[in-house]
Task: structure prediction
Amino acid sequence: MYGSRLSLQNEISVALQFGKLQIDHAAQMQMYDVPQHIAALDALLTANLTEEELNDIEYQFRVVYTFDSASKGSAHIQFLTPDSDEGKSVHNVLQKYKISDELYPHKPSEVATLVAKKSGRRFTVSDHTDAWRTFKVRPAKGDKTNRTYCIFHRAYNSYTYNDAWVELLVSELTKTQKAAKPADHADLILTAVAAAPAPADPSST
Result:
């Protein structure tokens, strides 16, 4: 097809046959790490590239699979640019079904522990309750949360929070520490943010 110079007929002793890759086979392949010599070659190729060059779709791109019906007359493989309307729609659908436990892994007690550890201040579950009320990231009941920080699990009737929520509380508590005399309680965070507008919920726009 491409001429004798690029032929493999003198390199292999058996005929090559290609079959359809099944979904479970593809999933199994993802379980294996890239061999070290391939990873080293990739590192060598990208070592002198800038961040802008690495992110350039002309240099490299990622293929995302999704399933859709296709007639015999339509293409079975379709490439969408990330910034197109259809590309954004596919990305949003795939993102929607990402496991919520990965995006919002922290229970209230875990948030309190992380905030106390990162800020070096006492921060209890009660303080956390006051904080989500102040920032209005979730209602007392129901699923109308600010998904920038929190999500409601209908199956468990409970709320979990993400790393951004932890960082926001640590940031506000740290700012309050610098502006006030040392105190023994995390109430400082509430007095500092009581007059501040609640963060916008991108899901409502």
DSSP finds nine helices and two strands in the chain. The two ends are 54 Å apart (CA to CA). Residues 192-196 have pLDDT under 50 and may be disordered.
